[in-house]
Amino acid sequence: MEHAGKHALVTGGGTGIGKGIAIALAQAGAEVTITGRRADKLDEVAAENPRLHPLVMDVDDEASVRDGIAAAAKARGPVQICIANAGIAEGKPFAQTTLADWRRTMTTNLDGVFLTMQAALETLGADDAGRMIVISSIAGVRGLKNAIPYTASKHGVIGLIHGLSEEYMKRPITFNALCPGYVDTAIVRNQLPGLMKRFGVDEAGAIAAIAQGNRSGVLLDVDETTSALMWLCSDGARSINGQTIEISGGQV
Ligand code: NDP
Asked: For ligand 1, is residue 41 a contact (CB within 6 Å)?
């Protein structure tokens, strides 16, 4: 119960990586606000633990984020643990990528993190401790072909936490990024039909094509990201600040 009484917020907490993180934080005693656009997904997760609190919030919409986080803080206190996890991934060759594609990804993956972090920080008093963590990607530290807006957005959030770790250096708040390789969640599974068509392979072949980037050759488990995140939120990690941690088995 390391986090008993703390308020944590997890964007995209209704599915995949965010769901795993939210449940682990609730099991560790935190009151966890889970956000996303689909109320049904949030309600399903909230049913797993009474310390999980669903909140419909669209990170593409400034008012939704500001009002949502302010309401969550009013109900459960300052956001001491903020996990900016909500994101989208779309694959397309660069030459076919439109400005609308670019902006859609930037709006969710980069603007959404900016708004979430700023609104969460506003809830903290001058002496309050905080852990601000963004789920970037291995694409935040390396190039990912056929996903240039995604790659740029995930690099962008790392710049954001680097800057914030400097700006808030004198306060007891840390800013870090986790960079997973391919994890077995909807964001990956949704790409399988397109890959099966493009490469003329079955589902197993499409998964193998994606997972070959991981050293293990298989998709990572959600709990691998959860474990790293729980360590970053622990008291022992209070001096880990401005770091990007790759969870990829050494993917190059
Ligand atoms: P999911 O698709 O399961 O999760 C994405 C989550 O983001 C969903 O819960 C979704 O909820 C939420 N979301 C998307 N757009 C918005 C929006 N506009 N407003 C609010 N919430 C939104 O996939 P993952 O769990 O894998 O992805 C979580 C994060 O991890 C993403 O940032 C992703 O880029 C990153 N990541 C994933 C990897 C992987 O291989 N799976 C690897 C590296 C990083 P809803 O649709 O209900 O709004």
From this structure: yes
Cβ of 174 below 6 Å from ligand 1? no
The rounded Å distance from CA 21 to ligand 1 centre is 12
Phi and psi angles of residue 32, each rounded to the nearest 5 degrees, phi first: -115, 120
15 lines ligand 1 (CB under 6 A): yes
- Output Rg (C-alpha) for the chain, integer angstroms: 18
Nearest to 8 by CA among 124, 111, 88: 124
Indicate which residues carry an active-site annotation: 150
Q: How much is the pLDDT for 87?
A: 98
Residue with tokens 């694959």: 91
Distance between Cα 12 and ligand 1 center (Å):
6
What residues contact residue 223 under an 8 Å CB cut-off, 6+ apart?
Answer: 20
pLDDT digits (tens, 9 = 90+) for 91-105: 889 999 999 999 999
- DSSP class per residue in 164-232: HHHHTTTSSEEEEEEEE--BSSHHHHTTHHHHHHHHT--HHHHHHHHHTTSTTSSPBPHHHHHHHHHHH
pTM score, two decimals? 0.97
CA of 15 to the centre of ligand 1 (A): 7
Tokens of 3: 């986090």
pLDDT over 70 percentage in the chain: 99
Question: Is 60 exceeded by the pLDDT of residue 252?
Answer: no
